[in-house]
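Consider the tokenized backbone below.
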């Protein structure tokens, strides 16, 4: 199975479809997380709780997509031809993006479950409200790392999207002019 199937896999296994679900969950989780924890944004607290619940579900779904991505499109890919350095660099960058996402999910998941709050580990919705966090130094550190990793992920996604856009433009120019 090649990494890029051109969208030819049947139904929901299509690479493009998986990529767009994956991207949608991650972008929604990032935006809702930044909105939830922007304390200068004056919104009623029940609405903030709902945005946090949506953030958590989107993050969980993004993490599941990330695991699926690693299982279906594993690294390194077994190919008949030897890929060049550019393709290897792209694969490494994508692999790092998935590992970054899984780190973001796991730091929040573990951080909120500390202090005997094991229901947080098995519930897709927040069991405890947004501001009730475990009162331990490790939980505060993990949730701080979670926020820092989210900012790194946002920057990495901007690089990824910009590179993909430039690649798409370059391929279109090559097809139109017939030259490289």
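A designed sequence for it:
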């Amino acid at each position: 199975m090649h990494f890029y199937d051109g969208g030819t896999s049947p139904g929901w296994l299509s690479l493009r479809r998986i990529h767009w679900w994956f991207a949608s969950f991650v972008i929604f989780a990032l935006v809702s997380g930044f909105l939830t924890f922007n304390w200068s944004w004056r919104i009623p607290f029940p609405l903030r709780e709902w945005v946090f619940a949506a953030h958590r579900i989107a993050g969980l779904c993004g993490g599941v997509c990330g695991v699926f991505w690693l299982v279906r499109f594993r690294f390194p890919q077994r190919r008949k031809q030897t890929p060049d350095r550019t393709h290897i660099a792209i694969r490494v960058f994508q692999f790092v993006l998935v590992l970054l996402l899984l780190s973001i999910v796991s730091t929040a998941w573990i951080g909120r479950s500390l202090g005997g709050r094991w229901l947080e580990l098995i519930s897709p919705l927040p069991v405890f409200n947004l501001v009730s966090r475990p009162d331990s130094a490790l939980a505060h550190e993990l949730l701080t790392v979670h926020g820092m990793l989210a900012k790194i992920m946002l920057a990495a996604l901007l690089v990824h999207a910009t590179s993909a856009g430039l690649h798409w433009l370059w391929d279109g120019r090559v097809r139109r002019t017939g030259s490289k």
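The helical segments are 15-36, 45-72, 85-113, 119-122, 137-177.
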